[in-house]
Amino acid sequence: MYGRALAAVGAALLLCAPGGQATGKSPGWAIAAVDQGSRRVLVLQSAEELMPYQGPDRLPVWWSWSADREPELADLRPARSWTDPDEAKSRVRQGRRHLIATASGGLAVVVDTATRRVRWAADLGAAANPHSIELLPDGNVAVAASTGGWVRLYAASQGPRAARYADHPLPGAHGVQWDERTGLLWALGEDALVALRVGGTPAEPALTPVRRVPLPDRGGHDLAPVLAEPGRFWVSTLRHLYRYDPAADTFAPVRLADPAAERDVKSIGDEPFTGRLLTVAPDHQGSCDWCTSVITLHRPEGVRVLRGARLYKARWWSAL
User: Fold this and answer.
1) 11 has a pLDDT exceeding 50
2) To bridge 18 with a disulfide, which of 63, 101, 199, 266 should be the other Cys (CB 3.0-4.6 Å)?
């Protein structure tokens, strides 16, 4: 099964370019970073190219997006709703790559990267503090809101401003992830990981909780797939990193070369061909206490300082 998974990932690398076209760049995956300073999602060069990059005055960006520059989002007032973007993922559906993103100011959005057309968007309000997003195979969109304390599944397949949703309460909801293998929507809260069964119809979705797993410690923050081991998840909390296996219902601690790097991780992910991990954690050095200018790579170790950036998360620009 591991071999088949990597074969599928290898085929998907043809979609490495943001617009979904084959690229002549490094065979490694690019990196998508959420920069709250410039209010942009930045797609950076692959790790192999990023690590030796020495230009201090220019970020190695080869694609970017900001709600501030999209007239079709004017009705959602991005000057407010796009404040502090906090999530960016790549999802490929029906052969097309999409950027899915949220901001603490309230915006949740799905963008076709080739055309830059907004496929769906909603202003969920700053009081909700949207923190993560997922695009389901049927085109509907799940959003986790930390202050709102909920996970919602929007009928986004029905139109660019579709507002109908199903919801499930989850205190401190920070992460949401679709598991294609089981057909379950997983969501991470303050002290629990929950699995939700999606029912109803695309136009009228429903969510049914089927599993609740207490976290080993509090402060759940990031939930991401272990790409080298399909069906498992990376989980970050305030103090630790874990690899969760739903089949065994176990949390295995993730040990990094520097134990301090395991704390307060805002995002984590693996590149399956190399096994390299990518993490972002705040450095508590600037005016943004939850941001950093550093992308950290593990196994092998390395850091890249993006001068002037206020990064919140960074993820492999994968072809899920």
Assistant:
1) no
2) 63
Q: For residues 74 and 237, give the distance between their C-alpha atoms in angstroms, rounded to a whole number.
A: 36
Give the model confidence (pLDDT) of 20-39 as tens digits: 433 334 446 899 999 999 99
By C-alpha distance, which of 309, 213, 310, 227 is closest to 268? 227
Q: Which residues span the domain enclosing 105?
A: 39-44+61-270
Q: What pTM value is reported for the model?
A: 0.90
pLDDT at 55: 54
Total domain count for the chain?
1
Q: Tokens standing for 12? A: 């998907």
**Is 34 exposed, middle or buried, given 0-12, 13-18 or 19+ CB atoms closer than 10 A?**
buried
Burial (CB count within 10 angstroms: exposed 0-12, middle 13-18, buried 19+), residue 21: exposed
**How remote is the C-alpha of 78 from its chain's centroid?**
20
Main-chain dihedrals φ then ψ at residue 45, nearest 5 degrees: -60, 160
In the predicted model, what is the mean pLDDT of residues 272-281?
92
Q: Is residue 302 part of a domain?
A: no
The pLDDT assigned to 4 comes to 39
CATH number at residue 234: 2.130.10.10
Phi-psi region of 205 (alpha: psi -120 to 50; beta: other; left: phi over 0): beta
Question: Does residue 15 belong to any structural domain of this protein?
Answer: no
Residue 108 lies in a domain: yes
Per-residue pLDDT tens over the stretch 219-264? 999 999 999 999 999 999 999 999 999 999 999 999 999 999 999 9
Comparing 80-89, 179-188, 279-288, the range with the smallest average pLDDT is 279-288
φ, ψ of residue 6 to 5 degrees: the values are -70, -35
Q: Is 258 part of a structural domain of the chain?
A: yes
Instruction: Give all strands of the β-sheet with 311-316 in edge-to-edge order.
Output: 61-65, 40-44, 31-35, 311-316
